[in-house]
Amino acid sequence: MRLKRMTRRNSGNMILELTPLIDVVFLLLIFFMVATTFEDLSGIKIDLPQSTIKEVREVKEIQILIDENSELYLNYRETTKSKKSMKVTLENLKEELGEKLLNSSEKNVIITADKKLDYGFIVEIMTIAKEAGASSLDIDTAVAK
């Protein structure tokens, strides 16, 4: 079987249509905007204490958020991509955190607390986290300008 080579009948200038190309780029832009997950603290306003240390650590699995009204929120990842947040109380923090730590490969807990909170309350949260099975605790701070 012999293949026939196609030849162009008109040897004039070829015009490239940009409309389909623009459509494809626009659709890709929309896809990536929708597919991208944004780091969100679920609308919780927390005024972090400042530090001169500039080590940045990404929240990998479990984070305890405490706002200025001492309300507790637990951020965690069920899979590698989906991040969930739930409101917890001081009474059920140990059970919820223990359950999340059992399913977690990394037993690190990051505590993000408002700077106006009482030091004793933060220590109480740290004690509950250790009792729930956390191997290490990190305190989140804002970088001083």
Automatic annotation (TrEMBL):
<dbReference type="Pfam" id="PF02472">
    <property type="entry name" value="ExbD"/>
</dbReference>
<keyword id="KW-1003">Cell membrane</keyword>
<protein>
    <submittedName>
        <fullName>Outer membrane transport energization protein ExbD</fullName>
    </submittedName>
</protein>
<keyword id="KW-0812">Transmembrane</keyword>
<keyword id="KW-0813">Transport</keyword>
<feature type="transmembrane region" description="Helical">
    <location>
        <begin position="21"/>
        <end position="38"/>
    </location>
</feature>
<dbReference type="GO" id="GO:0005886">
    <property type="term" value="C:plasma membrane"/>
</dbReference>
<keyword id="KW-1133">Transmembrane helix</keyword>
<keyword id="KW-0653">Protein transport</keyword>
<dbReference type="GO" id="GO:0022857">
    <property type="term" value="F:transmembrane transporter activity"/>
</dbReference>
<dbReference type="GO" id="GO:0015031">
    <property type="term" value="P:protein transport"/>
</dbReference>
<keyword id="KW-0472">Membrane</keyword>
<dbReference type="InterPro" id="IPR003400">
    <property type="entry name" value="ExbD"/>
</dbReference>
<comment type="similarity">
    <text>Belongs to the ExbD/TolR family.</text>
</comment>
